[in-house]
Amino acid sequence: MDTIEQPAHARLVTAEDRELPVSATLRYTADDPLAVFVDFPAEAALDGEEVTWTFARTLLDQGLRAPAGHGDVQIWPCGGARTVLEFHSPHGLALLQFQASTLRRFLVRTYEVVAPGQEDVAGVVERGLSALFGGV
Asked: Does domain 3-116 have CATH number 3.40.50.10940?
């Protein structure tokens, strides 16, 4: 299994327009080649539990160049140096700014593991159905 984990620093933008530093881990695995994961430690979450956001790798790619996404995850460039990730949950909204270069470097590393267009979609679906139905 090929997995990439890359530490990243973000700035959480509060309702008062303050920016608070937040650590995160960007993660990608060949076992789920269509997705990327952003893991936040417990101290960064409202409920004190670790939080992982999962979204399409293509969404990250698109959001680095232009506004992308709808619903729970939206991504857009913010000037030349930053990229905003906006996460919506039943508990509220989190607006985070990452260095665009950090996200680009991570995305390139994921392409070294599984090239775009080479994802085993059938395998992902089969594993998902197997997990859903308990391996039946």
From this structure: no
